[in-house]
Design brief:
about 280 residues, alpha+beta, 11 strands, four-stranded antiparallel β-sheet, seven-stranded antiparallel β-sheet, Arc Repressor Mutant, subunit A, 3 domains, Jelly Rolls, globular
Length: about 280
């Protein structure tokens, strides 16, 4: 995972997990990692020392940024700034993988000041994964810089959905959505609506309506986006049997997987696999 770099080894020394440097460019560092933290309780607070954008590739966890909770999966990027208070919890277990980009002050200032979480659409996620694959093959500062800019330019604050009138209702709705996303990830995105509603203790109709209102997308759309990204992560890690991956993530068969990937990414799985390896 990544390559050895004395500067990055020194910066990340002592942190749990594994990782490696993808490259340095224009005052920014790219580092890929597999998290070694675990535990369902939030960790003690630490304070950010740099401006850092985390682009998840697999797994899911909870994060507190200055006391604000965010559920992080491959659909959500998180931006933390120097001095932010951070705490994390892994209710589904550790081992999540991600790319960390240390941003220089100029680039960070171009992003919305109050935003700390960003929705990763399908194209942005694929740009990110292709960037990682290209850096693994051999770092080209110009090409990597263009690919990274393509990712940064597409980031938009995650603010979908209308807010309820009462603050307590908004908090309850966000909590329900987080629990549904956790349950989906825990079941490898294969759960049906009735089973999912049972796991979060509400009716299927209520869950479907609230999820759409809070996130701006249906449960089906979210599930398909997340399980495609799980497939992409496995492909990038060396799994290459599409039939096995289709069964692993709840697709009816390989043809179903191919149709869903084409719909979201505009390419067949075999083509995407070549892009990522």
């Amino acid at each position: 995972m990544g390559r050895r770099c004395q500067q990055c080894d020194a910066r990340y020394a002592g942190q749990p997990g594994s990782g490696g440097c993808l490259g340095h460019l224009d005052g920014m560092r790219l580092f890929e990692a597999r998290c070694g933290l675990d535990g369902t309780r939030f960790s003690p607070p630490v304070y950010e020392t740099v401006n850092r954008l985390v682009l998840p590739r697999s797994g899911a966890y909870l994060m507190l940024v200055n006391g604000q909770e965010v559920f992080v999966d491959s659909g959500t990027a998180v931006l933390t700034r120097r001095g932010d208070e951070l705490r994390v919890a892994h209710p589904l277990g550790g081992g999540d993988t991600f790319t960390a980009v240390e941003l220089d002050a100029e680039v960070c200032e171009r992003l919305p000041r109050r935003a700390y979480r960003f929705r990763l659409d399908d194209a942005t996620d694929l740009h990110h994964r292709v960037l990682v694959a290209a850096c693994r093959r051999g770092f080209d500062a110009l090409a990597a810089g263009e690919r990274l800019r393509a990712v940064l330019d597409r980031l938009a604050p995650d603010s979908a959905g209308g807010a309820p009138r009462r603050a307590a209702t908004a908090v309850a709705h966000r909590r329900l959505v987080t629990e549904a996303r956790e349950a989906l990830a825990d079941g490898r995105y294969a759960s049906g609506l009735t089973e999912l509603a049972r796991r979060v203790s509400c009716s299927p109709h209520h869950l479907s309506r609230i999820f759409q209102a809070v996130t701006g997308e249906s449960l089906t759309e979210h599930r398909n986006r997340m399980r495609i990204r799980a497939v992409l992560s496995d492909l990038q890690d060396g799994d290459d049997c599409l039939r096995i991956l289709a069964a692993r993530y709840g697709f009816a068969d390989q043809s179903h997987l191919t149709r869903v990937v084409r719909k979201h990414l505009g390419e067949a799985p075999a083509t995407v696999r070549r892009m990522l390896n």
